[in-house]
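Q: I'm writing up a methods section and want to include an example of the input and output format. Could you take the sequence below and give the corresponding predicted structure tokens, formatted cleanly so I can copy it straight into the document?
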Amino acid sequence: MYRVPRRVTLLMISVLIAATIFFTTTYRLKPESTPEIDVKNTNGEIKRSKKGSRLILGNSTESSQKLTEQHGTTLYKKYGVPITGLNHTIIYNKMPKCGSRTMDTLLRWTCSKLDIKPRRCKIVYDFERIDLKGKEESAIKRVQQLAAHPPALFSDHIFYFPVEKSIHPVYINMIRDPIEYLVSSYYYRQHGDKTPGSVDRVKKKFGLEMKMNETFDQCVLKEHEACVKEEYLSRIFHFFCGTHPKCSTDLKWSLNEAKRRVEEEYLIVGLLEDYESTLKLMEKLAPSLFKGIVTDYKADIRKKESEKYQTNFKKPISAEVRAILREKLDLTYQFYDFVKTKLELLKKEYDI
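A: Here is the clean output for your methods example:
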């Protein structure tokens, strides 16, 4: 019988091995199933996974995945991703004059329903303690203490600040139309609201800064700092950027960082103009924490309580002033439109 020469046999084995290596590295076998994730394309549109389900971030899953680029799409981090269980710490770094005291009332009731003791439900009510720099370290320490026995809540007028992911932070916030924010803030610093002692407090706090009889239109046309100071014009997205030095010195960088924070760190950022829808989404995204918050919002007692938080006096602004501010607030409107688009997509997803 004819025998194949040894050298031919070795050559055939070598060719087979080389071919095997080539095909396994070039054409990798696909797994039988793929993770069920939601992704968004560069236009911000939601693309569904094969089964169309979202990642659920509970106690047993990672709550801080790194933002990953895959074939032109971006994996969601935390924005709009449902969470389960009670092992979380709610952080509401509330933007002033954006319905924050109404939200504080709702969160206080939430603490009561969840049997969160007052010492673990920290709500700072002082509107103008927005001191955002120098307070980060104490805020982080306070949140870490609260989170020792979850669930817990921390609410304060403070720029975004990072905490350990191990405490399962749930960041939430609300913003509003930038021009309306400036107008409301201006007249609040002039006239206060209907809460007892408010007028005396604002006069003491802002008496030197504010021309108490000057309208917002007059202030803008005269370019007084009380209404067109750069700090006020960029404050909304600065709140989300944080306390990094570049947040106040490089506004375009600050804007992009604020957007990144929303994507990566916040469960939701709502709009004052769409308050009820925001609450409905909170209840959908974190039912174990916010169940019943919409019902509470509609309650008569809540409506009566919120009336006292309304600014005592506001005068409508002229078309001329609105046009001036629209130009000055270009970056802030970019952030506002970004948040609004994300909220609308989420509403569409949940049929709200």
